[in-house]
Amino acid sequence: MGSCFSDLKGAKQAVGGVNAQTGTTNNNNDAVDFFYTAQGFQPLFTHVELSLSACNLLDLDIASKSDPMVVVYAKKGDGRLEELGRTEVIPNSLNPEWIEKISIAFHFEMVQPLVFHVYDIDTKYHRVPTKTLKLSDQDFLGEASCTLSEIVTKPSRSLTVKLQNKRGISGQRKQGAITIHAEETVAARSAVEIIFRCSHLDNKDILSKSDPFLRISRIVESGGSVPICKTEVKDNNLNPKWRPLCLNFQQFGSKDNPLLIECFDFNSSGNHALIGKLQKSVADLEKLYQERKGANFVMRSTRNGQEKVLKGQLFVDQYCEKEQFSFIDYVSSGFELNFMVAVDFTASNGNPQQPDSLHYMDLSGRLNSYQKAIMEVGEVIQFYDSDKRFPAWGFGGKIPGGIVSHCFNLNGSLTSSEVVGVEGIMEAYGSALRSVSLSGPTLFGPVINLAAQMAAASLSSYNSSKYYVLLIITDGVVTDLQETINAVVKASDLPLSILIVGVGSTDFKSMEVLDADNGCRLESSTGRIATRDIVQFVPMREIQSGQISVVQALLEELPNQFLTFMRSRDIKPLVSQFPHPSTIL
Amino acid sequence: MSQTIEITILSAENLQENKKAIKGNTFVTVQCDGSNNEVSTTKLDSEGGSYPTWNEKVVIDLPLHARFVTIEVKYKTRGSSSNSVGIARVPVSDFLGGYVHENQLQFLSYRLWDNRVMRNGVVNISVKVKMSQQNSCSSSMSSTMNGVPVTGVPVAGNGSCSRVATGIPAVWLNYQRHI
């Protein structure tokens, strides 16, 4: 029940502006956040700010209009709601545009369901800080829910959802709609590219010269340092010039934050000798570049503990600030991730009728490893695929007709491999288990080649805005390792990422060579080397015990792989064809 | 009759000379196995050492029957001579007629083999296949003979092709009868 007159004084108070939170972390627990920040653990994921507005809200006050406020929740895995933040109260408005933004970290690898509750705040609470309001005392105006990925993939990143009663039952009256707009913090996009050079470095090697490299760390509040990046090693060189180093603003915070730059002599034993260090902020480095001066390294002398100024100097040969488009920039402008699945039908899985088979479909509804992997990966990626038509294949099985195929359509069709939605994949998987008999061996080559053909075909179309993701679920070590490597190398220059999940209890050590995370680029049998690392491999067993699911481990790298491909070819997000929507529908 | 290929020699990694880092000025030569005398050379990189970068574009005309493009990384020794660091033989089928169509930029990397057939680093290139003469004929209809579009192979003798005949245009047969 509202009162007759709205609170004018409360309405005139400033919201936002200078008093807005400058922190970008979730303020669920300030103490925890400050602890982590002091240790240097800045979150590395993108931060997104949600701006909210609504229209046609219910009018619950008698003489004036409702005074609405929104509370934003994240829905956790067990269904429980965790509050992320609240907007301010806007008095006397059925079409409010709230100024206060809710900050949330965008995790590509998770489905992030959000719930919005709109309340009408009683006048007597208007001057109380919104955080202390007890929601059970307020009038409920409506609820809306969506996922964060739904918002960021829309053109102009705005999503409008109708408000409903709690528990999703539409009320008899029209309750209006809420519009959520997501904006990335500017820091996500800015980067600086620097070329470092040194002169007159001290010689730390006995028989030859030093092999120097630089390590750049961020100095944290507790006084220690957290490494951000390092250059490559220049062998046998006391006046090295390294390749350009790209630092994202998110890594070093602000241009005035002091950075620790250390120069080491590389030793293959791992015990690198410190040649010298110095402390400069990014703004200082910019000045070094402009004045073309060098900065001397210092070294703590062992004798008297004082800092000795060395002859070695650091120069900045190039300093340039760049705008890098972020992953959200691309997906919101129309870029899509096309999902493809390949399922292992080799005999090592075990007879699907037996409960110990990896393909056993439990009647109680418990998902087997294959279904789990498909569900978890598919559920995240489906938001990024506009038509939700996914090609699905099986390999290593004997299809009706008697021949063993290493790339057959899971839906049983001879012409099209596509199924609709994650449910479509599950259905096709179930029906294939009944009609295909398990055989062998485990060959990835044909599936990877087919996926590569599809990715290449999209490259030649007018605006290549598709990126393909192939999920291969297998229970065994691949038989044709070199053939698979050849297929991967051939596809390494295409807009394709290959995610491999290993299920079951096999030892997958020999498969890890496909995932070139150790730095060894894959080499084909013809001498061609993979242009980029497109394979991510994770054995499902390893992840069961921890908190991270298989999906998160696999998908974490995907935005980076996508961005490296787009940036290397200078492909920019599509120019938006939609004007910024007005908030009043 | 040939295809025009734009190869940009980007960089090389992990080069060694006698198990030690390269000190001299490195450069790259490109030639295809069709025309033996045409060798394109890049500029020198004096600072890169074992990790040189050139970023230089080389345009070569690839005869139809060529099967390899040979990329050789060398470094200059005293005088005007040079030593070879390693060779990569790029099969033409890797960038022509594969997955990717013409006019697309492709980034490729190859293993370099030295003269003792040992691995010696990696060379990174990017390749763009320009629309070939033959295709541009049929698509642009700009070169016609008596108003009829030409879709066959031009007759040898206009100096642009090497010693291989790949087909006889039907029109030629008419001339033959009159000789």
UniProtKB/TrEMBL annotation, chain A:
It is found in: Cell membrane. One of its GO terms (biological process) is defense response. GO terms for molecular function: calcium-dependent phospholipid binding; metal ion binding. Keywords: Calcium, Cell membrane, Lipoprotein, Membrane, Metal-binding, Plant defense, Repeat. It comes from the Eukaryota. It is a lipid-anchor. One of its GO terms (cellular component) is plasma membrane. InterPro entries: C2_dom, C2_domain_sf, C2B_Copine, Copine, Copine_C, VWF_A, vWFA_dom_sf. Residues 26-161, 172-299 form the C2 domain. Residues 338-558 form the VWFA domain. Pfam families: C2 (PF00168), Copine (PF07002). Belongs to the copine family. This is C2; von Willebrand factor, type A; Copine. It comes from Medicago truncatula.
TrEMBL record, chain B:
This is Putative C2 domain-containing protein. PANTHER family: BON1-ASSOCIATED PROTEIN 2, INGRESSION PROTEIN FIC1. It comes from Medicago truncatula. InterPro entries: C2_dom, C2_domain_sf, C2_SRC2/BAP. SUPFAM superfamilies: C2 domain (Calcium/lipid-binding domain, CaLB). The lineage of its organism: Eukaryota, Viridiplantae, Streptophyta, Embryophyta, Tracheophyta. GO terms for biological process: defense response. SMART domains: C2. Residues 1-105 form the C2 domain. It holds the Pfam family C2. Transmembrane segments: none annotated. Gene3D superfamilies: C2 domain.
